[in-house]
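pls design
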């Protein structure tokens, strides 16, 4: 009996020792966890600081995009403008078919966007100088439009200003590639909510800093669109955008008819892509300037068709590749930056990207839209 009591007492003693050891281990683990937690907290604070660095900029970008978005009424007016043109031109051209394309419909429109329209013509009408017919007819409507001009360029247009609504209208003939590009860009604009705000802000910066003005030998608004999309395909990690022409070669190609394009449901395409990139639009803006401040514009070519950087094509003046800024047009493969035809303009544009990146990364500079839009002087 005494032996049994001794065993029981010994067992209890051992249990107490084990409990103490467990308590010590728990205390040690708890201390390690606290130590580890403090490290995590420090990292979290650092991450929070990093996020805060872009928080104001991101908020500014979203607000700017919202304030500069056209109203639904303004959008409807532009879309219905084709009816007005059809009524006016039908006396000169049988059953005219006008289609809106460009910035008013590509997902990147602003309150100041012009209205691009193309007239689809086939058969004998095509050989009867339809653009001149449009020009002659519209010149007679002086009560509704002003400054009507027939401009002979690579893509001839009739250009005028609508007196009632105040926007500029450009009319071309059979601009199929323009319609396809509009459909392509519109789809890209809907793949990720960061795309449109980023494009809108960068185009505003480009206008304020003498980078965007194709009539003055600078980049066109369209070329800037392609630059932003390419950055989001190629340099963002993980990538924000895919190459739609590679994902859906049966839809985004030069053989898809205009009627086919108008039947495509964008939502199904958009549902097929979700980016794993979690960077804010503010972070992406800073990285955009960093990327293009280092890119060798004169020797490299960027392509949203492939989502890759290529070696610049050999000198090809017909396609617009003259060794300056090289941006591949996704369907015709021409140079979308052909408006930059002077070396001095090319150098000015490259310098602006470098200056803006340096300014945004400099110590003590607030990373908000005031800094982005300000004209750089160093």
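designed seq:
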């Amino acid at each position: 009996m005494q032996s049994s009591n001794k065993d029981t007492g010994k067992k209890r003693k051992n249990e107490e020792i084990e409990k103490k050891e467990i308590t010590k281990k728990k205390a040690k683990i708890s201390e390690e966890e606290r130590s580890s937690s403090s490290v995590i907290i420090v990292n979290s604070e650092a991450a929070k600081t990093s996020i805060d660095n872009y928080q104001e900029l991101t908020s500014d970008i979203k607000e700017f995009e919202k304030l500069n978005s056209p109203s639904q009424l303004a959008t409807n007016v532009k879309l219905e403008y084709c009816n007005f043109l059809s009524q006016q031109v039908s006396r000169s051209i049988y059953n005219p078919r006008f289609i809106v394309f460009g910035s008013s419909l590509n997902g990147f429109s602003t309150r100041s966007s012009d209205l691009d329209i193309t007239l689809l013509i086939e058969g004998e009408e095509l050989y009867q100088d339809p653009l001149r017919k449009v020009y002659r007819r519209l010149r007679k409507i002086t009560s509704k439009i002003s400054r009507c001009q027939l401009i002979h360029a690579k893509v001839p247009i009739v250009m005028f200003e609508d007196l009632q609504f105040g926007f500029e209208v450009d009319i071309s003939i059979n601009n199929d590639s323009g319609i396809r590009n509009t459909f392509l860009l519109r789809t890209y604009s809907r793949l990720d909510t960061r795309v449109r705000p980023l494009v809108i802000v960068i185009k505003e910066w480009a206008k304020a800093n003498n980078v965007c003005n194709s009539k003055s030998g600078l980049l066109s608004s369209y070329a800037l669109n392609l630059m932003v999309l390419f950055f989001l395909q190629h340099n963002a990690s993980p990538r924000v955008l895919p190459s739609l022409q590679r994902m859906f070669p049966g839809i985004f190609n030069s053989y898809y008819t205009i009627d086919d394009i108008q039947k495509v449901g964008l939502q199904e395409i958009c549902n097929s892509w979700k980016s794993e990139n979690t960077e804010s639009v503010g972070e992406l803006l800073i990285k955009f300037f960093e990327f293009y401040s280092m890119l060798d514009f004169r020797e490299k070519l960027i392509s949203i068709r492939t989502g890759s950087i290529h070696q610049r094509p050999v000198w090809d003046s017909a396609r617009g590749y003259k060794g300056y800024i090289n941006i591949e047009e996704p369907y015709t493969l021409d140079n979308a930056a052909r408006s930059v035809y002077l070396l001095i303009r090319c150098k000015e544009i490259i310098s602006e990207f470098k200056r803006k990146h340096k300014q945004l990364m400099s110590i003590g500079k607030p990373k908000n839209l005031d800094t982005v839009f300000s004209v750089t002087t160093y």
